[in-house]
From TrEMBL, chain A:
Keywords, in A-Z order: Antibiotic resistance, Cell membrane, Membrane, Transmembrane, Transmembrane helix, Transport
UniProt similarity note: Belongs to the ABC-2 integral membrane protein family.
Membrane-topology annotation of the record: Multi-pass membrane protein
Species: Nocardioides alpinus
Spans through the membrane: 24-42, 54-75, 96-125, 131-155, 162-181, 218-240
Location(s), subcellular: Cell membrane
InterPro entries (alphabetical): ABC-2_transporter_component (IPR051449), ABC2_TM (IPR013525), ABC2_TM_bact-type (IPR047817), ABC_2_transport (IPR000412)
GO MF term list: ABC-type transporter activity
Name of the molecule in the record: Transport permease protein
Pfam families: ABC2_membrane (PF01061)
Signal peptide positions (record): none
The UniProt record lists the keyword Transmembrane helix: yes
Chief place where the protein resides: membrane
GO CC, alphabetical: ATP-binding cassette (ABC) transporter complex
TrEMBL record, chain B:
GO molecular function: ATP binding; ATP hydrolysis activity
Keywords associated with the record: ATP-binding, Nucleotide-binding
SUPFAM superfamilies according to UniProt: P-loop containing nucleoside triphosphate hydrolases (SSF52540)
Name assigned to this protein: ABC transporter ATP-binding protein
Domain ABC transporter: residue ranges: 6-228
Keyword Nucleotide-binding on entry: yes
Amino acid sequence: MSPRITWAVAGRVLTQVRRDHRTLAMLLVVPCVLISLLWWMFEDLPGDLFDRFGPGLLAMFPFIVMFLVTSVTTLRERSSGTLERLLTMPMGKLDFLLGYALAFGLLAAVQSALAVAVSVGLLGLDVNGPVWLLGVVAVVDAVLGTALGLLVSAFATTEFQAVQFMPAFVLPQILLCGLFVPRDQMPAVLEAISNVLPLSYAVDAMQELVGDADQGEVWRSIAIVACFALAALVLGAATLRRRTP
Amino acid sequence: MMKNVIEVRDLTVVRGGREVLPAISLGVTAGVTGLLGPSGCGKSTLLRALVGAQQVASGSVEVLGEPAGSAALRTRIGYVTQAASVYDDLTVAENLGFFARVLGVDRSSADEAIEVVGLADQRQQVVGRLSGGQRSRVSLAVALLGTPDLLVLDEPTVGLDPVLRRDLWELFHRLADGGAAVLVSSHVMDEAERCHRLLLMREGRIIADGSPDEIRESTGAADIEHAFLHMVEGTEEAA
């Protein structure tokens, strides 16, 4: 592993995104629009529904977006031959993966900063914990999405298939993360499943920050999400083969 | 006797249950070597084995005195795959700059490579907007970074116009004169005359190995295409 190469990969990925104005605009604007839409939808209803659902949505954006972007871009690297070429060069597998994680983590930080600014500043989301900690959750969450995206891209042979992994891998996590039904009120089997899904902990962390704001709890959830991300990166590294059939 | 740059012994490669390379052996010396044969005869598989990208079933491949694919070789071999393995959404200069950083060579080397393949005027253009021939030259420029000791080029002249093809072959000879070994694959037999040495390949086997003159003389054919046909028909009669 070499920091020079990791930075080279991260820099290249960011240049590619910067060149693609439409993707960049969607990455940054869409979460802000969606969170505003959520706020508007609940506006005339009694209670603080926005405070209940807002944090979950903030946890989902970086995860979903980075999962999609990464699975398609790495699939492109595999099919265009650039990955094969890189692996005949002094490119470590971890350099490649960390480079991507770094670039998309940075993008997620900007994306979340905007979405959080809109939620807290404009829409009046009540955050009891430190606001910057929301950003930390979002970045770890984005790295998780990146790591999972890298992993599943190994099992797709076309971009069409890669996109189909989104409903297969991401939607169940959204349903079971505790946003719609609190996790402790789910049937025991589903609760057990939700306990081993990473997004549950990302949403837990966000909700904890908005609710009781026990920082120990937040960091515990962040640590769990980080462990999932690390495991996915290690598994992803195993799918990068210098020698292919 | 010149020392071999590439030494392949009993290399067997199986892809999708089919034996693509059936225990072949060959050696490649310095200079420009052409690997000629029809599409699907195993040229790309052999080249992939040389750069360590191919899973092999058995046999040994030694390149520049090291086992193929070893870490020490990764800065010493320039490899061009059949598809232009560059980033379509980056400019020519950005592509070369990125690969130069991965290889740990300085930026001037990137500018030099762009110059050598004749893309200096296109350096700020996004690769996706270039013509097919220009894109494959960007890919070639990447392989030239850091002046590698061995160039492995998989059909680098396919689909290029005659002028460009001539220029590239001149470039390969300049690189060989500079001390590099250049291994070029092609399915176009008329490129054979431009090589110091030829390896003719068919159905995974090397059916002839020698200079263009030697191969023509051994078969009495007027050109390499006829020599190839002569050999193929000869082996079929014998079988």
